[in-house]
Design goal:
About 65% of the residues lie in helices and about 10% in strands. The protein is α/β, with parallel strands linked by helices. Strands 6-7-8-3-9-10 form a six-stranded mixed sheet, with helices on both faces. A four-stranded antiparallel sheet has the order 2-1-4-5, with helices on one face. Strand 4 and strand 5 form a beta hairpin. Helix 12 packs antiparallel against helix 14. The longest helix has about 55 residues.
Length: about 575
């Protein structure tokens, strides 16, 4: 899906166009339903004049049969119309959720910039639902407008003054209702923004609950969430007050309008301009008009909230990509030759690095920011501000991001696990055969973790793998990265939570399982550094040393302090 372009109005129109058939059919059936309801007081008035006033039983029976037919048609039309309208809303919301999901998962990234995961979840649920509701209420709005037109025609047939009163009075009422909805639209947008932010903060705190408890920072976290929640509550209350004021004002206007119609009709009846049956029909139509007006009030409010939500959805859909998408495919037989030339980004100050195919290389840096920037470049989550990174002689900017990430896998040390079995977590990126999975489990010592679980590898893990210890989670995440068997594997501190004995076993097995494949370790672990072909030292954002681990330990005091401290 191309990034950029849609606005709130585009999002609304696209949601409605996608459900055009359902909306049109629901509108037609809703019009028939409202038309039948509008005819009920007309039929009752006619029955009074032609049957009750004359005492004709046959005429009364005929009109009762007509009423029964009207109720049969309107009830069936209402049921079918409501089902289609609600279906249109649900399908429109589902389509928006799919578009948002595709944008968030777009390999080029950018949709999650400056947005908490909880905020994105709120946009994909609450905002998508509100925009989908516009497709639903549009059919209701068409039916309500049709009811007003039918009622006006019926009143014109009864009395021209009454019909003109309705026809001339409806447009100003609708205009006033639209004007009154403006504050509701603004406050609804603020309400959704605050609610999304509160959801994001809550998800963030839950994710870090164990860390917060360990630091004894629960009170500060609770205070932060309380402030955020109170802001969200205040915005919700303002929106609720605006909604109540909007509905109350519109109902008051329509109530006055209907009372005027009743008074004018009574005056006409007293003068003999209309019959008693016509008066009953006019009053019945006036009371019936309250329903369409209330429905239009509801439709107007839903449109106001839908427009606010559509703008928030458009902001996500039009988020600029973090990297530009290349078009060249990555060969499945990639040699895994990486070369960095004068790469500059953040803390990196002109990094030159040639990583040969099949090499097991380590990068040591005492600056966490430099390590993070290097990972961003290699994963192509960000493109260098200057310089060039090549895979097998092809610049990364010319390669399709999704294909590139299958060839160059960057495994962060804090990678999350899924709420599924241990084996399914490891198989997530593996090829079809089971051999890489078995080797990956053994190399990462995750097979020992599986043996300790009650159901073995089929044991379902808790959310984000919280049922495992930190070291166990790290081993399973390492197994998942190894099982992918990518041409280039970049591991960032893969054993920081593992005991030294297990770390030594992993180091020895890692070299074996990655034999012939390019592997980059960003770490300061002596056990891992000892099994590498060579070590590159980054200091001040540039390469300052390159050699074997034992040579650097013996001859470089700063290196020795960084890895043996």
């Amino acid at each position: 899906m191309p990034v950029g372009g849609p606005t709130g109005g585009h999002v609304l129109r696209r949601a409605i166009r996608g459900q055009r058939r359902r909306v049109v059919t629901a509108s037609l059936l809703g019009t028939v339903h409202q038309g039948c309801e509008a005819l009920v007081p007309v039929v009752i008035g006619a029955a009074i004049d032609t049957a009750v006033a004359t005492g004709s039983s046959q005429a009364l029976l005929r009109w009762l049969l007509v009423l029964a037919g009207l109720f049969l048609v309107l009830s069936n039309c209402y049921r079918t119309s409501a089902r289609l309208a609600e279906g249109a809303g649900e399908h429109a919301a589902h389509r928006l959720r799919m578009e948002l999901g595709a944008r968030v998962l777009d390999p080029r990234g950018g949709a999650d910039a400056n947005r908490l995961p909880g905020a994105l979840t709120s946009i994909a649920t609450n905002d998508a639902r509100r925009v989908g509701s516009v497709a639903t209420v549009l059919a209701y709005g068409v039916a309500a407008t049709s009811a007003l037109v039918i009622s006006s025609v019926a009143l014109l047939r009864i009395s021209v003054p009454l019909g003109l009163l309705v026809l001339l009075g409806i447009p100003p009422l609708l205009w006033l209702g639209h004007r009154i909805s403006r504050p509701l639209e603004r406050r609804s947008e603020t309400e959704q923004e605050r609610a999304a932010h509160a959801s994001g903060v809550a998800a963030d705190l839950v994710a870090g609950l164990r860390v917060l408890k360990g630091m004894g920072a629960e009170s500060a976290a609770v205070a932060r969430y309380r402030t955020t929640s109170q802001d969200s509550l205040a915005a919700a209350l303002r929106a609720a007050r605006s909604r109540a004021g909007h509905e109350g004002a519109v109902l008051s206007l329509t109530g006055i309008f209907i009372a005027v119609i009743g008074i004018v009709g009574a005056c006409l009846a007293m003068r003999g301009s209309i019959s008693i049956g016509d008066l009953v029909a006019a009053v019945g139509l006036a009371q019936f008009l309250l329903g369409p007006f209330q429905l239009l009030t509801y439709v107007n409010a839903e449109f106001a909230q839908g427009r606010a939500s559509a703008r928030r959805i458009a902001e996500v859909l039009e988020s600029p990509a973090a990297v530009e998408g290349g078009e060249s495919a990555v060969s499945d037989a990639s040699a895994g030759h990486l070369r960095l030339s004068e790469v500059r980004l953040g803390s990196l100050r002109g990094v030159d690095l040639d990583i040969r195919p099949g090499e097991l290389i380590a990068v040591v840096t005492a600056d966490p920011a430099a390590a993070a920037d290097l990972l961003l470049c290699l994963a192509r989550e960000r493109d260098p501000a200057d310089g060039l990174i090549e895979l097998d002689g092809v610049p990364l900017t010319e390669l399709a991001p999704d294909g590139l990430r299958r060839a160059v896998l960057v495994a962060h040390h804090d990678a999350d696990l899924f709420e599924t079995s241990l084996l399914d977590n490891v198989r997530a990126g593996a090829r079809a055969d089971g051999a890489p999975v078995d080797r990956a489990l053994a190399a990462s010592a995750a097979d020992e973790v599986a043996r300790l679980l009650p159901g073995g590898g089929d044991t379902v893990l808790a959310e984000r793998g919280r049922s495992l210890s930190g070291g166990q989670r790290q081993r399973v995440a390492l197994a998942r990265a190894l099982a992918a068997d990518s041409s280039v594997l970049v591991l960032h501190d893969p054993t920081t939570a593992v005991d030294t004995v297990t770390e030594s076993r992993i180091a020895a097995r890692l070299r074996e399982v990655r034999h012939g494949r390019t592997t980059v370790l960003i770490t300061t672990s002596p056990a891992l550094l000892a099994v590498t072909d060579r070590v590159v030292v980054l200091d001040g954002g540039t390469v300052t040393a390159d050699g074997h681990h034992s040579e650097l330990v013996a001859g470089d005091e700063r290196y020795r302090a960084a890895v043996l401290a």
